[in-house]
Design goal:
Length: about 550
């Protein structure tokens, strides 16, 4: 069933009131790939009555009052991505299209949606029950952070929105415990994965430099971010506090990761894999073309690329579903009347991180002084693609499945580090799971820029490219590699982009088209570099291109004819 979004649906269910109302900046798509749908279903499975209001009109009461007032709390999210990222390009131009808005026209999600929706609720519901922030926008803006769109350091979004509670990360466990505690009248301030506002600092918390200090002192900002980043692992993290005005933001340690059994249970809940009819009447959402018939195999990423927020939001420990759970979901896909035999993607944040993790990390938490993949793949990781090979073979055997594509990017340094199963994995993918082109994300090729990105060197890319085309030829197929590249990353100059152009033409034999201008998103090391103009790992100054015209020029050097 869909989570109800209209009064008529409440009447049909016999619900007079709701326990929880979720408000989101996206249209309501009932999918495993949509966080607000997942937490809504988790709460309903536990017996709570939940409603959802998607992309409410912010200039009237017609949408926000539609379902009444919740008995326990409001849940507010900007949507699947930060609303400012959704609404603007890397050069701060407004985006005309949106994959999660009916009809595709980007005209329904406000800037800083979390703040706007919280104010909307308070405008029409005085002294209402707690407003709880969640999702990517809240999660990555939970402490003082650099905001590219205003070119300023902003307070925690919990303070700017004037909400009551913030849940960060993948919040299924925390939101369920929160609902249970609120229903029983118990305290909530000890819950993991939760931030709240306190009149006093907490004696058992690490105190970050205050908002006022990090706003005026870039060294203090860098110090704050290092401490914040290294307290994201559930096993090792400590409580944090940060003075924002006369009050303090308190961040409890992260929620413990879901076990495989818990992850399987969530992904096997019933989802419609469709947009709610109430919103479908306004137009289709483009996102469904990809996510409707895709399979999520795992969460988290130990890549920790400096420009990416996945490690902060999902965690840098990879958790994967069981093969049986994925197979059951695949069989359910086949039963859909409009399923044409093609599973669009089998993967996660990175396709080939399924089925293996560092045992030391699982027991003791992530290392503070080194990373799993950079500057090279850590020998403790024990890279093993055998489970993913077995999974892909089983998916191909399901009656009704013509193709199961691996459309998520492949981390080629991981593949090359697996001396036993790396080549067989790529061979399997090349023969059976590529839709004409395979994605790789080198991002750049010069050593200095790659070091600042936290990405492997160009030699690994060339080894992977050679292997890919060798196996493609052996399979008698005509397939290609698509390379994702970034322009204007901190430290990158026009000279670096000319080197990238030469490399692409001479070594990769392409004229690149997939070149993005770097966008500084909240709570990443690359954004820290962009703001401070400093290498946070050495303390040395670096060049940062901040002029919009010059950023465009960096991109044009590579894609121009």
């Amino acid at each position: 069933m869909f989570i109800p979004t209209t009064e008529q649906e409440l009447d049909q269910l016999g619900w007079q009131t709701l326990d929880v109302i979720l408000v989101t900046g996206d249209s309501y798509v009932d999918s495993l790939f949509v966080g607000v749908a997942v937490v809504g279903k988790v709460l309903i499975e536990a017996g709570f009555k939940v409603g959802i209001i998607a992309q409410p009109d912010t200039h009237s009461e017609k949408d926000i009052r539609r379902l009444g007032e919740p008995e326990l709390f409001w849940g507010v999210t900007g949507g699947c991505i930060d609303s400012m990222v959704a609404n603007y390009t890397a050069t701060k131009k407004g985006k005309r299209s949106d994959d999660f808005t009916p009809g595709g026209r980007n005209d329904r999600r406000p800037n800083r949606a979390v703040i706007v929706y919280t104010n909307l609720i308070k405008r029409y519901f005085k002294d209402t029950n707690p407003i709880v922030l969640g999702g990517v926008e809240a999660s990555l803006r939970r402490i003082a952070h650099y905001d590219f769109w205003s070119d300023s350091v902003r307070r925690s979004i919990l303070f700017d929105a004037k909400a009551d509670i913030l849940l960060y990360g993948m919040a299924e466990k925390t939101i369920l415990k929160l609902a249970e505690r609120l229903k029983s009248g118990q305290g909530i301030r000890d819950l993991r994965g939760l931030c709240y506002i306190s009149q006093e600092k907490q004696p058992d918390a690490i105190e970050l430099p205050s908002y006022e200090k990090v706003k005026r002192d870039k060294d203090a900002f860098a110090e704050m971010f290092h401490t914040f980043y290294h307290n994201n692992d559930p096993i090792t993290a400590q409580k944090l506090c940060q003075q924002q005005d006369t009050r303090y933001l308190i961040q409890n340690p992260p929620a413990h990761y879901l076990t495989q059994q818990e992850l399987d249970a969530i992904y096997e809940m019933e989802f419609e894999r469709a947009q709610h009819p109430f919103y479908e009447s306004l137009g289709a959402v483009k996102a469904l073309e990809t996510i409707k018939f895709s399979l999520a195999t795992h969460r988290g990423c130990y890549g920790e690329c400096n420009f990416c927020s996945i490690a902060v939001h999902q965690g840098r420990t990879v958790r994967w579903r069981s093969e049986e759970s994925i197979m059951r979901e695949a069989r359910r896909l086949v039963a859909y009347p409009d399923f044409k035999g093609y599973i669009k993607d089998v993967g996660g944040p990175t396709a080939n991180m399924y089925g293996f993790e560092c045992q030391k990390k699982l027991a003791r938490g992530g290392c503070e002084d080194k990373r799993c993949l950079y500057p090279q793949v850590c020998p403790q990781l024990k890279v093993d693609h055998s489970r993913q090979i077995a999974l892909l073979k089983r998916l191909r055997q399901i009656k009704g499945v013509k193709k199961a594509f691996v459309a998520s990017g492949v981390r080629y340094d991981l593949l090359l580090a697996d001396s036993r199963h790396g080549v067989p994995y790529l061979q399997e993918v090349v023969r059976h799971h590529v839709s004409g082109q395979m994605k790789a994300a080198p991002e750049h090729v010069t050593d200095r820029v790659l070091r600042l990105m936290g990405k492997p060197g160009a030699k690994a890319l060339l080894r992977f490219r050679k292997l890919f085309f060798k196996l493609t030829k052996a399979a008698h197929k005509k397939q290609f590699l698509t390379y994702y590249l970034i322009a204007a990353h901190p430290g990158c100059t026009e000279r670096d982009m000319r080197a990238l152009r030469r490399f692409a033409r001479r070594k990769l034999k392409i004229r690149p088209e997939q070149v993005q201008i770097f966008t500084p998103t909240p709570s990443t090391y690359s954004s820290l570099m962009y703001y401070t103009e400093m290498d946070p790992f050495t303390g040395k100054s670096i060049f940062v291109e901040k002029d919009t015209v010059e950023k465009e020029r960096q991109k044009e050097i590579v894609v121009g004819r």
